[in-house]
Write a structure and sequence with these properties.
Distance between the termini: 93 Å
């Protein structure tokens, strides 16, 4: 498909790019395309990598009622 592009065809394409986007925008477009390709490759690598191990489960906390202000033994409701 692109094998029959000659030097003249490439120059015409570059001239059209400069006319459409401007000379200052072409490096920005190239760098953003490069960053997009790099991000795409990194995401493909992350998909192939095994998931990180899960953190160990936290130990359950035991319930400790607040200390009474009267000091000593806690109040008993009924026996």
């Amino acid at each position: 498909m692109f094998g029959d592009l000659s030097f003249a065809h490439i120059l015409i394409l570059l001239l059209v790019l400069v006319l459409v986007f401007g000379a200052r925008r072409i490096p920005e477009i190239g760098s953003s395309i490069g960053q997009g390709i790099k991000e795409f490759k990194r995401s493909l690598k992350d998909v192939d990598a095994p998931p990180p191990p899960a953190p160990p489960p936290a130990e359950p906390r035991s319930f400790q009622p607040p200390a009474s202000s009267s000091g000593g033994e806690p109040k008993r409701l009924s026996q």
